[in-house]
Design a protein that fits this description.
- This protein has about 325 residues and is an alpha/beta fold.
- The chain has a domain of about 170 residues: Isopropylmalate Dehydrogenase.
- It is built from 13 helices and ten strands.
- Strand 4 and strand 5 form a beta hairpin.
- Helix 7 packs across helix 8 and helix 7 crosses helix 13.
- The protein is globular.
Length: about 325
């Protein structure tokens, strides 16, 4: 029931994913009459793999997490998380209030042993491929121990995505040991002594995009600004390139010749393609979609959930934490 475009966009994305993935079963949690209208045109075969669970309350995008936690026991978000807790679903995907989703996830699903705070992680395009960036906004103020735990979780998540020995770095204002605030310096000391972790030191923002690390760790304040700035920059560059190729006859001709390559580049960098941040550190899979994501973006969030289900990520994390945490 959340997100800037409401349930219509989410239902359309769900229908598209059902059509593309025959093994997928989905549960839509929210106001039944509204959701039934939106899925009324779904083919019978796909409708058999979709169920609707009623929820009488909706958490607003501007509500405080404490209000959502204490005041709305029958919210769609909470019921969805309880389905995961009770084994009736393998993952929860939401485009709703981020703070409320994090608070409810911690309350309903609990964190894995040894983890103080879950962290949001998502893939960022780089020159070398992709980098897992965390935290993206769930934890604005972080201790050195929090950053250390994020690094461990990010490394395990990157391994689950196929990277044999992920390079882990701390995002900083310089690569020298003397640079950075106290938390980052202390976190670096902890990571340098970590067994079984491929810590490569500090990385700056430009180094992240050069692909100097597979996992980049920072607090949620910095990570959220970096993520939103990256998405805005990618969109701005795309708009400017389109304008340049519409300037005159020669520009239009050059644009027509370059269009196939430009479309590939635009598709590769499109924020919607990389939508879906995972809440690492919970005893269950929770994926946060951008509130502003459209149909394609929410499909990407569902696909991220499918990957984590296939990789059994929470159990994989749990199995590695004892080896990597001090």
């Amino acid at each position: 029931m959340g997100g800037d475009f409401g349930p219509r966009s989410i239902v359309q994305a769900s229908i598209a994913c059902l059509s593309a993935t025959p093994s997928l079963h989905l549960t839509l949690v929210g106001q039944p009459s509204l959701l039934e209208d939106l899925v009324s045109g779904l083919a019978a075969a796909d409708r058999a793999r979709l169920q609707i669970v009623a929820a009488s309350e909706v958490i607003g995008m501007d509500e405080r997490p404490s209000q959502a936690l204490r005041g709305k026991p029958d919210s769609s978000m909470r019921i969805a998380l309880e389905l995961v807790r009770d084994g009736k679903a393998q993952a929860c995907v939401s485009a709703g209030n981020t703070g409320a989703l994090m608070a409810l996830s911690r309350f309903v699903l609990k964190t894995l042993p040894g983890i103080d705070r879950p962290a949001m992680v998502a893939a960022i395009p780089t020159q070398a491929g992709y980098c897992q960036l965390l935290d993206l906004g769930a934890n604005v103020d972080c201790s050195a121990e929090n950053l250390y735990q994020f690094a461990v979780m990010g490394s395990v998540a990157a391994q689950a995505l196929g990277i044999h020995r992920p390079r882990v770095a701390l995002l900083n204002i310089g690569t020298e040991d003397i640079k950075g605030n106290q938390q980052v310096k202390l976190a670096a000391t902890l990571l340098q002594g970590a067994r079984g972790l491929n810590y490569v030191g500090f990385v700056e923002g430009d180094g992240l995009y050069r692909g100097e690390a597979d996992v980049v760790v920072c607090d949620g304040f910095v990570g959220n600004i970096l993520l939103k700035s990256s998405e805005g920059l990618a969109t701005m560059i795309g708009v400017r390139i389109e304008r340049l190729f519409k300037g005159g006859a020669l520009s239009r001709l050059a644009g027509a010749m370059a269009m196939p390559l430009l479309k590939r580049l635009k598709a590769d960098l499109a924020p919607a393609r990389h939508n879906g941040a995972s809440f690492l550190g919970l005893q269950g899979i929770v994926i946060k979609s951008h509130g502003s994501a459209g149909v394609e973006g929410f499909q990407s969030a569902i696909q991220r959930a499918l990957i984590e289900i296939q990789e059994n990520l929470p159990q994989r994390l749990h199995g590695r934490l004892e080896d990597l945490l001090p």
